[in-house]
C-alpha cells in the first residue's frame, strides 16, 4: 500500500481538550477550532484531490511535544475530524484501516499523516 497523500500537521489537541461541554451542549473548544483551521490551510496549500467516499487507510505518526506521557489514541479524533472538514474525504467511517504510532519528540510536536485508497475486492460469490 503506497501512501497517496501525506500531510505534516501540527500537534493535535487531545480528545479531552478538543471537546468542551456546557450543560447538555457539547462543542469544539477554541483549541479544536484552531487546529481544524490550521489543518484546512495545510490541506488547501497541498493541492490535494479529495478521496470522496472511497474506502481508505490512514497511518499516523505522532511526534510528541515533550517526553511527558500521554495517551496516543486521544490524538486521533481531532486529526480525523479536521481532515474530514478540510474535504479530504467524506466521512471518517470510510477508514478500513487505521494505524497510529508514537514518533520521536519534536519541539512543538507534530502529526505526520499518510492517507491512501484501499481497493476492495469484488465478491464473486
Please sum up the structure shown.
This protein has 125 residues and is α+β, with helices and mostly antiparallel strands. The protein is built from three helices and six strands.
Itemize the secondary structure elements and their pairings:
Layout: E1 5-9, H1 15-18, E2 19-22, E3 25-28, H2 30-46, E4 56-63, H3 76-85, E5 95-102, E6 110-117
Parallel strand pairs: 4-5
Antiparallel strand pairs: 1-6, 2-3, 4-6
Helix pairs in contact: 2-3
Task: Tell me what the structure shows.
The chain has 125 residues and is of the alpha+beta class. The protein has one domain: 2-Layer Sandwich (60s Ribosomal Protein L30, Chain: A). The chain is 25% helix and 30% strand. It contains 3 helices and 6 strands. The chain has helices spanning 15-18, 30-46, 76-85, and strands at 5-9, 19-22, 25-28, 56-63, 95-102, 110-117. The strands form 2 sheets. The protein has a 4-stranded mixed sheet with strand order 1-6-4-5. The mean pLDDT is 89.
Key descriptive features of the protein:
3 helices; alpha+beta; two-stranded antiparallel ribbon; 125 residues; four-stranded mixed β-sheet; 60s Ribosomal Protein L30, Chain: A
Write the CATH homologous superfamily. Holliday junction resolvase RusA
What's the oligomerization state? single chain
Number of helices: 3
Give the uncertain stretches in residue-range form: none
Q: Which overall shape is indicated by the principal axes computed on the Cα atoms? A: globular
CATH class: Alpha Beta
- Read across the widest sheet, the strand sequence of neighbours is 1-6-4-5
The secondary-structure class comes to: alpha+beta
Distance between the termini: 26 Å
What's the CATH topology name?
A: 60s Ribosomal Protein L30, Chain: A
Please compute the radius of gyration using only Cα atoms.
15 Å
The total tally of domains equals 1
Q: Based on DSSP secondary structure assignment, what is the total number of beta strands?
A: 6
The ordered H/E elements are: EHEEHEHEE
CATH architecture: 2-Layer Sandwich
Amino acid at each position: 500500500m503506497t501512501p497517496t497523500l501525506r500531510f505534516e500537521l501540527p500537534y493535535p489537541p487531545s480528545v479531552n481538550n478538543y471537546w468542551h461541554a456546557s450543560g447538555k451542549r457539547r462543542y469544539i473548544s477554541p483549541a479544536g477550532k484552531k487546529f481544524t483551521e490550521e489543518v484546512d490551510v495545510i490541506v488547501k496549500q497541498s493541492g490535494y484531490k479529495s478521496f470522496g467516499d472511497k474506502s481508505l487507510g490512514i497511518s499516523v505518526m505522532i511526534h510528541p511535544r515533550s517526553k511527558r506521557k500521554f495517551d496516543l489514541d486521544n490524538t486521533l479524533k481531532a486529526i480525523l475530524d479536521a481532515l474530514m472538514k478540510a474535504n479530504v474525504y467524506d466521512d471518517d467511517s470510510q477508514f478500513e484501516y487505521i494505524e497510529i504510532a508514537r514518533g520521536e519528540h519534536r519541539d512543538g510536536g507534530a502529526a505526520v499523516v499518510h492517507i491512501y485508497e484501499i481497493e476492495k475486492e469484488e465478491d464473486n460469490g
